[in-house]
Amino acid sequence: MPRTALLVSAAVLAALLPLSPLSSARAASDPAPVPVDRFEGEVPFAAQPAEGIFTWGGDSDDPPSLQLAARADAPEGAKALTGSYDISSYGGFTHDFAATGPARDWSAHRGIRFWWDGQDNGRKIAFEIKDGGANGEASELWTTSFTDDFTGWKQIELPFTDFTYRTDYQPVGGIDHVLGLTRMWGYALTLPAGVKGRFAMDDVELYGKADQSLRASVTTDSAVRPVEAGGTATVEVGVATTGSAPTDEPVTVTYETTGGTAIPGKDYTPVSGTLTFPAGTASGATRTIKVPTSKNTSPAAARTIPLKLTVSGAKAPAETPQVVIDAHGLPYLDARLPVRKRVADLLSRMSLAEKTGQMTQAERAALTDQGDIAAYALGSLLSGGGSTPTPNTPEAWAKMIDGFQLRTRATRFQIPLIYGVDAVHGHNNLAGATVMPHNIGIGATRDPELAERTGAVTAAEVRATGIPWDFAPCLCVSRDERWGRSYESFGEDPALVESMETVVQGLQGRANGQDLSRNDKVLATAKHFAGDGGTEYGSSTTGTYTIDQGVTKVTPQQLEAVHLAPFRTAVDRGIGTVMPSYSSLDVLGDGRGPVKMHARADMINGVLKGRMGFDGFVISDWNAIDQLPGDYASHVRTSVNAGVDMMMVPYTYKDFSSTLADEVKAGRISERRIDDAVSRILTQKFRLGLFEHPYADTTGAAQIGSPEHRAVARRAAAESQVLLKNTGGLLPLKKSEKVYVAGSNADDIGNQTGGWTLTWQGSSGNITRGTTILQGMREAGGNVTYSKDASAPADGYDAGVVVVGETPYAEGVGDVGNGHDLQLSAADKAAVDKVCAAMKCAVLVVSGRPQLIGDRLDRIDALVASWLPGTEGEGVADVLYGSRPFTGQLPVTWPRSEAQLPINVGDPSYDPQFPYGWGLTTLTHVPRGGAATLRALGVAAAAAERAGADRTGRELVAEARLIVQQKAGQRIGEAMAEPFADAGHLLLTGRYGEAVHKLTEAYRAA
């Protein structure tokens, strides 16, 4: 990197610069430098949307200190930007231009330069510039670096040609991946971590005249051009310019076929020549190069023909394009053969490096280069939460994934990628997709058929964007609502979780896997094996988490009955993949103590694959092996030998693949184990039809977010609503009633959808297309007035609806004690108090877990657990206004206080605010009767049980439950709550007679 090196004082510099031949040459041909920052006070310390300089860091100690200090030796003016730092994670500072002003055009210049007061610490300092997008914090980041290996002032010159697109982090996931320089929003510096230091900086400016190679580049239509043997590959070579201006100078491209695995003269006809784009050529003009290949009927692996391009007058393509003669004639390519034979044939041909590549999964945004897909024979890519293309549209997803799949064509056996996403309540990473209620709400519906339909809608929308693999469903049994993932669980009862596993068929189709190749089905993932919902409060060792990723301490009997049961059902349903938990398992009596699940061979190899007979593959959680003890080699060795088949190593895919190969060569991992893992992975790829159809089938894209799909989500939202209290029959509301609506969650689609919506943690606000609860009420024809904080006058209304609850979170970030609790916010409490003091009121709690509301319960006429209903707020309005009845039941116990937690159905001491299974109804016909009626129902339920008449049995138990609730009202004591909750569990296990018996016991106690 060429840089000026003048290590002199400002006074000496002033004397020398007029005599510098370099300066004279520049003065004659270059434009005058353009100041960006003089640090004399013209740019304030401020942040977006104003123009300003601001600091940032990984934690509260990491942002550096900054000041504008008077310096006698300042290279420009009287002051310089100075500061100090002591960074443990990451930190630095930024100058953003005003978001409300226009972006700036830097395209006329060669680069950016500044003066730096060197400390000679030998550390690299990253310098990034912000290109395109909406503003400085929503732009593309392009980066380079310089080394502080000098003392005193030095002018650092950074040509724009040295900047590369950041692959480890982008605030918006990328815009066009082109450093246009015409819409610049500022710059940022990342200071060295792990060392205390100070710095001074002065006079940031644009310098020099732009080379045409900065404004013009040669492109090819594709980095990989597959062709069948005997066909002619056509490669388009084009020229593009910044701003689409014609070229100033001629551009020539000399080409030749050279190298690769194909044999010239035998596999193809060599070509060479020169393409010329004269001065004045329009941006986007193209020329073609044709590469003829030979017809070869003998079975063969794919062969590559690199097309070397030598460019003059423009920037050359980032990589050499390759023509690839497709593999053909090999048995594994024959779709008529059984999958097991195809797998065996392909496996027999693969090298160790190709096998380890198949076991490696990388985050798509972390690829150093897309060519790494072929170079490392990667088996899989994923999008983590919020890792999306730009724009975030179905078309962009399909195009992005097709581009990744194209890279696999440049490998010997052209094994397709399997791309995965966390579509945990609909295709939740995609803007405009249908977002379902979270699993906690689906559990509240007690409707297995509806759960299957939600899975089917999710699968159709995911597959239509080119994605064949979903990291869902979560089969955790949530035993402590302080857990930040509790809403990902269908409930606290393993029987309830098992009953909702119809979602697996919605996602995958038939249990034998024959539907996986359909364009509306995806491979599903049962997670997190096993016990993640049982972690003890305070046992987590991950950052500031309190419960997530902690320790589950259970007896062998509890492990089997609670945490393993849902996975037995999933295996029976043909689940394709299983993901182990981050958490540790401590099985009492086994003498091992807590052991991370990714290291438990007894559970993964022994129980899951052995006793349960799971024949899919096991995928690790995000970077989970890094939590194992020992060095990296032991992480790899332990997890693979424990039975993990594919490793989610988002940023360390190169290290993992090479370490895994080294462990095999050293004999610490057997080749047989590798073959088993790869066979399992390949089996699912064949079942998905990826070898025949690796690219996106977007015929279903028009249905994404369609009225038909949203109708399913609307029904799910309606059925998920649990009516906990309804004094005087306040609900359903009449459309003629004048209704006062308040609360933080009444009109917030982000809060309504929760975490894992567009981003990992989710966010408040208008983040995606959908209908809020308030909008749903208006669209239902309600006479509604809205005041978020209840500050509007509250006189003259027939009823109030206060919609309160949580803001979004995910995983351990949402753990109680990690900045979260189970209390309503002060603003929500104030809204409830004001509205409920002024009129009859219904309170809707929009949350991922119960909220402690007992101290206000007497003042509330109707209380609804709305959970996180997704994008279709009309579903909530449907039950509020009676077009659908309330039928939801609590999937978890609603506690009186946090001191009661954990509290679950079946506990020996059980005195909740509302028991598991509680849920009033607004059905027009509510059954009536007393002890005699319950006795008759019990006899009939037992008879139905003996006859295997499940539907009749469930209906009889439901009738008995409603009779008990009607008598109990709000008089819910321990003697009533315990048998009532037990009945809900017995119902789900098919013991209908016993369930009615328990309800009769609850009736007597009520």
Explained architecture:
With 1006 residues, the protein is an alpha/beta fold. The chain has five domains: 34-210, Jelly Rolls (Sandwich), CATH 2.60.120.430; 214-329, CalX-beta domain (Immunoglobulin-like, Sandwich); 420-617, Glycoside hydrolase, family 3, N-terminal domain (TIM Barrel, Alpha-Beta Barrel), CATH 3.20.20; 721-892, Rossmann fold (3-Layer(aba) Sandwich); 923-1005, no CATH class. The chain contains 25 helices and 37 strands. Strands 1, 3, 4, 6, 9 and 12 form a six-stranded antiparallel β-sheet that branches. A six-stranded antiparallel β-sheet has the order 2-5-11-7-8-10, with no helix packed on it. A hairpin with a 7-residue loop joins strand 28 and strand 29. The radius of gyration is 32 Å and the shape is globular. It starts with 9 loop residues before the first helix and ends with a helix. Residues 227-293 form the Calx-beta domain. Residues 352-683 form the Glycoside hydrolase family 3 N-terminal domain. Its EC number is 3.2.1.21. It comes from Streptomyces cellostaticus.
Short description:
With 1006 residues, the protein is of the alpha/beta class.
Topology:
Elements: H1 10-16, H2 21-29, E1 34-37, E2 52-57, E3 65-70, E4 79-86, E5 91-96, E6 111-119, E7 123-131, E8 140-148, E9 151-159, E10 164-165, E11 184-190, E12 196-207, H3 212-215, E13 216-220, E14 224-227, E15 232-241, E16 251-257, E17 272-277, E18 286-292, E19 303-312, E20 322-325, H4 339-349, H5 352-358, E21 360-363, H6 372-375, E22 380-383, H7 394-408, E23 418-421, H8 439-445, H9 448-463, E24 469-470, H10 494-499, H11 502-508, E25 525-529, E26 551-554, H12 556-572, E27 577-580, E28 584-587, E29 595-596, H13 601-611, E30 617-618, H14 632-642, E31 647-648, H15 653-665, H16 671-687, H17 707-720, E32 722-726, E33 738-742, H18 749-753, H19 773-779, E34 783-786, E35 799-805, H20 826-838, E36 841-846, E37 862-865, H21 874-880, H22 931-947, H23 950-968, H24 974-988, H25 992-1005
